């Protein structure tokens, strides 16, 4: 998911390719940035539903990532694709390997609010209460 702001376009040399430009909904004052590398084996379900204390921006290096955040439809992002999520109160439902027979590798940079964990799991009761905020799933149609 790429959102480019023409006001921020710069002339890049041909060896440099802009992959994603997103204006974060917020940057936690006093926050920090963290970049992680995730390598899921074939068929890995990813993390359980969770949220991040700040926005996150990612790039799929290998394979295919099944990605879903609250309010947006599930999507499969292939190698070379980008994704982002707003963080804060928004639930991140899926970050699974979309392939049953190939590994998946992606890198994510997260902006973390001070004094808060980078990732917090969402309990089943809250998932039930917020079910109306989840986009329809492919299996729902």
What does this structure look like?
The chain has one helix and nine strands; from the N terminus they run βββββββββα. It has 141 residues and is mainly beta. Helices cover 4% and strands 36% of the residues. It has a four-stranded antiparallel sheet, with no helix packed on it. The chain has a three-stranded antiparallel sheet with strand order 5-4-7, with no helix packed on it. A hairpin with a 5-residue loop joins strand 4 and strand 5. The chain has one helix at 124-129; strands at residues 32-40, 50-52, 56-62, 64-69, 75-78, 82-85, 92-97, 104-112, 119-121. The longest helix is centred in the C-terminal third of the chain and has 6 residues, at 124-129. It has a domain at 43-110: Jelly Rolls (Sandwich), CATH 2.60.120. The mean pLDDT is 89. The chain is globular.
């Amino acid at each position: 998911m790429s959102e480019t702001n023409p006001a921020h376009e710069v002339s890049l040399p041909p060896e440099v390719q802009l992959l994603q430009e997103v204006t974060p909904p917020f940057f936690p004052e006093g926050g920090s940035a963290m970049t992680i590398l995730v390598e899921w084996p074939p068929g890995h379900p990813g993390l359980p539903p969770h949220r991040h204390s700040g926005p996150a921006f990612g790039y799929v290096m290998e394979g295919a990532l099944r990605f879903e955040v609250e309010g947006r439809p599930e999507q499969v992002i292939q190698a070379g694709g980008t994704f982002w999520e707003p963080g804060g109160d928004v639930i991140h439902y899926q970050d699974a390997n979309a392939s049953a027979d190939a590994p998946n590798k992606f890198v994510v940079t997260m902006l973390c609010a001070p004094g808060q964990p980078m990732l917090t799991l969402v309990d089943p009761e809250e998932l039930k209460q917020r079910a109306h905020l989840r986009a329809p799933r492919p299996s729902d149609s």
